[in-house]
Write a structure and sequence with these properties.
By secondary structure, the protein is α/β, with parallel strands linked by helices. It is built from 10 helices and 17 strands. It has helices spanning 52-58, 111-114, 154-174, 191-201, 214-222, 234-242, 257-264, 286-290, 304-315, 334-342; strands at 11-19, 22-31, 40-50, 77-84, 98-101, 104-105, 125-126, 138-142, 146-148, 181-185, 206-211, 226-229, 245-250, 265-273, 295-298, 327-330, 351-354. Strands 3, 4, 5, 8, 9, 16 and 17 form a 7-stranded mixed beta sheet that branches. Bound molecules: zinc ion (ZN) (2 copies).
């Protein structure tokens, strides 16, 4: 438990602001803390991850309907509840709780929401895209989209919100058979957690990651995973060692990876697409899919239930997050952190920014 001075009347107010080609840290003079809206809580951010989507926005990604530049990014947030707005009581969240924010606030009323696919809600607001995000000192968000994460280290709790919960959903959707063979292309921020969650779900599963660099292979090897560096012969090497795969996950963000995934699959295999990819999907010859009855399945973010599940796995100690965060930087250095991340540093899993230099 981390103490926060609730008697403070003024609050530092820094936030990251992104528009195409520009990222800056805005500092406003200390002022009264903003009041959370109805049903919302005001959070003192402790840690917030930087996701590939944040870099995509810096590079001018087209925003979803209802959003416009400049954006205040950050959708992977852990922090302490400072205050509750009207009607925010009764959700099991109290002042001073460490919470993780689910990054999507669906309407809860449309057909998509009622069918149980809340993260696909066409009316949803996304934290750090439609609404000011958590690469900031404070953030307001609906309390019904928060999960208490008492006892977890803030930097690790933060990545549960997106990098881990998305991985959890991908693993659930893939339905790997017992003792099955799975390959994860792009074992970075999300992919590393896919491997970890597959191992928890079935210790007898045969797992391998495909990574871009030797340093990433080294990082996976030290976490006990088999890894191969992507090159011209990786397909042949994996075929020799594994035969075909039951499931291939692509979280690489590289246009060539889906086609490699199709080539690696065994008959009736499943390709799970989790990356944000600009442009068209290239899968190779149509017969490669049709004559082997392959399935291509997209996964997008996670549900609140998925987030509850990974918080529980982490709190119980079953989910080891030690390999999930590779770089911790300070919010004060946000601009440099974006540039560092954009250059794809060695052995990258996730970069997390903290609001205080002392938070672990
Ligand atoms: Zn993200
Ligand atoms: Zn909805």
């Amino acid at each position: 438990m981390i103490d926060v001075d609730m008697s403070a009347t003024s609050v530092a107010n820094r936030y990251v602001r992104v528009r195409p080609g520009s990222v800056e840290l805005v500092t406003e003079p200390p002022s009264q803390p903003p009041l959370p809206g109805p049903g919302e809580a005001l959070i003192d951010v402790l840690a917030c991850g930087i996701c590939g989507t944040d870099l995509h926005m810096w590079h001018g990604m087209r925003l979803p309907p209802g959003a416009q530049y400049p954006v205040r990014p950050g959708h992977e947030v852990a922090g302490l509840v400072r205050s509750l707005g009207d009607g925010a009581e009764g959700h099991g969240i109290a002042v001073a709780d460490l919470v993780v924010l689910h990054p999507i606030a669906p309407c809860g009323a449309c057909g998509t929401c009622r069918s149980g696919a809340e993260q696909l809600c066409p009316n949803a607001e996304v934290l750090g895209i439609h609404r000011p995000g958590g690469l900031a000192d404070t953030v307001s968000w609906p309390v019904r989209r928060m999960v208490a994460a008492r006892g977890l280290a803030p930097t690790r709790a933060a990545v549960l919100a997106d990098a881990v919960a998305t991985a959890y959903r991908a693993v659930r959707q893939a339905e790997l058979p017992p003792g099955g063979r799975a390959c994860v292309i792009g074992a970075g921020g999300v992919g590393t957690n896919v491997l970890e969650l597959l191992r928890i779900a079935d210790p007898s599963a045969r797992l391998v990651g495909i990574v871009g660099r030797a340093s990433s292979a080294q990082r996976l090897a030290s976490a006990g995973y088999d890894a191969e560096v992507a090159d011209d012969t990786v397909h042949r090497r994996l075929r020799e060692r594994f035969g075909g795969f039951d499931v291939v996950f692509d979280f690489s963000g590289r246009p060539a990876s889906p086609r490699l995934g199709i080539r690696l699959l065994d008959r009736r295999g499943v390709l799970v697409l989790g990356s944000v990819l600009d442009g068209d999907l290239v899968l190779g010859p149509a017969t490669a899919i049709q004559t082997r009855e392959l399935v291509v399945r997209g996964v997008f973010n996670s549900s609140l239930d998925d987030l509850h599940s990974v918080v529980e796995l982490a709190s119980s100690g079953r989910l080891d997050l030690s390999g999930s965060v590779s770089h911790v930087r300070s919010l004060s250095d946000a601009v440099a952190a974006f540039a560092e991340l954009d250059a794809r540093p060695e052995a990258l899993a996730r970069m997390v920014l903290t609001t205080s230099d002392s938070v672990g």
